[in-house]
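Subject: Re: docking follow-up (zinc ion)

Dear J.,

Thanks for your patience while I sorted out the input files. As discussed at Tuesday's group meeting, I've set up the holo structure prediction with zinc ion included as the bound ligand rather than trying to dock it afterwards. The sequence and the ligand SMILES I used are pasted below, so you can double-check that they match what you have on your end before we go further.
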Amino acid sequence: MNKSEASRLRLSASRLIAERHTLENVLLEHHRMLRGSLLERPKFCGKPGCKCTKGQPHPPGLCLSRLVNGTVRQIFIRAADHERARKEALAYKEYRQALRRWRAIDKELNTIWEDLGGSQEEGYPFE
Ligand SMILES: [Zn+2]
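The structure tokens for the complex came back this morning:
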């Protein structure tokens, strides 16, 4: 590895460290979180004569979809909980995204440290 490659690696490392620091601040924030993803479901009550049977669905229902023991489970969210559920599901999504990126950066940095370290190794006897 020549000098310019090594300084390019050092620059990448500094950038990754800065980005990782930003992510760590996201991960340190305290939020209540709802695991899973929210899906909007058109609602049909099915009562005879209701407008929904004539192609005018009710306001969509909100459904929480998540894995439980390897199976997808869906739970209806009560209308009164919609706002809170949306907020907490978003917080969950952001947390997971930050964690995924943090792990990827960790791997990248690991490779950089190994390469940089290797490029600074000397032979012996010294030249
Ligand atoms: Zn209906």
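A couple of observations from a first look. Helices lie at 3-28, 82-119. The beta strands are 37-43, 58-68, 71-77.

Let me know if you'd like me to rerun anything.

Best regards,
T.
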